[in-house]
User: Fold these one by one.
Assistant:
Number 1:
Amino acid sequence: MNRLFRDDALKKIYDKVKKGIRLSREDGLVLYKTRDLNGVGRMADHVRRQRHGNDAFYVYNQHLNYTNICKNRCLFCAYAVDEGDDGAYLWHMDEIEKRLMARIEEPVNELHIVGGLHPSLDFDYFTGLLQTVKRVRPNAKIKAFTSVEIDYLSKLSGLSVKETILVLKEAGLDMMPGGGAEVMSERVRKKLFPKKVNAQRWLEIMEAVHRAGIPTNATMLYGHIETLEERVDHLISLRELQDKTGGFSAFIPLAFHSQNTALSHLPATNAMDDLKNIAIARLMLDNFDHIKAYWVMITEKLAQVALAYGADDLDGTIIEERITHEAGATSAKGLTRDDMERMIRDSGFVPVERDTFYNELRRDGVLTTDYKDKGHGA
Ligand code: V47
Ligand code: SF4
């Protein structure tokens, strides 16, 4: 028997995919509702191979979470605490420098920097943070601050979002990560993250950031109380903004981890849901170049499989992930370059080490640029 799809409803969608016709909201729902995971994956792999062939990207990066003190206290977050609580921390510049220096012999070329909304910092802390990182690691790119932090920074600075971004850019900001959108539903926001910026503001900030010349990523937090309709609407809102600005680089589905949160009764996401979110993102987000399988959240093993379900990027080495591990993630806290390359190669893809902007640095373990492998901070 030679059947491509176990679910006949997927055939019509595949016809559209092959012709490059944009999928509708209804198509998105069919994809989420079907039990034919491999059918969805096959379509996503078709699109993935058209864009990226057999290449799979990763970045040599380091995460810095400068504070876990946050006044928003979203219900799904196990990372944030109040000022004065046990374990509350804020890193001043000497601590930031110490953490960068601890890895200075490694060829880190991206710093991923995010933190909570601290109630008593001033704007200079943030420009100082970027300047410190650029001084210690002049060749690395800085991907920092979510849309939620930018909203807060523009209030601290008293400047518009555009002006705030221009000041941060001058201090060293190269790109922004995609966190903070969660799922763009007012119903879910009211229940889980009422103090966080709403969907309209998140999109408005992203639009202003893109127009100021800073690319960003986008994410979706799934596997809590959101409906399938809300997931599809979230993807469509991102696709519409991407049509306007072209400023999104990658989309990253984030699998909810409930341990140590107010939602600890909720079960973990399963492999079916994790792979579907990757594949459906690849199919719905026809104007996004990159779909990341974030191994921290879905485990190294499933991230390898995800490369055949539409993902083309495994994010990075990370070195000390905190946000998901506080919520019970069982993945490693960081991986080596060899780990990343082995994961990709063993899945049948070609490992391509990239920088923040997807410039190729190494292909299958061989340097392809004059990128200096060591001594970034020297
Ligand atoms: O904004 C918080 C989410 C995000 C939990 O842009 C949780 O390259 C799961 O945005 N379970 C931060 N998720 C992570 C993030 C990210 C990660 C990797 C790459 C990029 C990128 C961005 O994590 C938060 C929030 O949406 N989050 N708590 C939790 N318990
Ligand atoms: Fe604060 Fe972000 Fe955690 Fe929400 S998800 S409580 S904004 S650190």
Number 2:
Amino acid sequence: AGSITFSMIKPDAYSAGNSGAILKMIEEAGFTIKAMKLTKLTPEVAGKFYEVHKERPFYGELCAYMSSAPIIALVLQKANAVEEFRKLIGATDPTKAADGTIRKIFAKSIEANAVHGSDSDENAAIEAGFFFSQFERV
Ligand code: CMP
């Protein structure tokens, strides 16, 4: 039971071999994996996913980075999933992330920050639908 959030294990964390450790932290924090997919984004698909950021100065770099290596897309369920997951991952900037958070432990920089987490229930539904059909979710 509970609500859902959408997450990605990003290229830096995948390439560093941290996917398993991150999934372990996610499960130990009480999230249930409802969908999971290993894939590699093209810059165009990354650009579409992050379209809300297209006016930001870091948008071009972000699209290049997100398509530089595989990612793992996840739909996660827990009571109050969006907020609980944002607590688990910590601040976008790992230098500002609290001790014990996924980004504090695994992120390399504000861009290569190990994981993505949706910022609202509405965006969680949109982002989950971007990656998964109804037949790829339990
Ligand atoms: P995420 O939570 O996935 O949402 C947008 C992403 O843009 C963010 O994580 C980072 O990967 C990246 N990002 C955010 N702010 C910056 C920044 N100031 N410079 C570079 N990348 C950023």
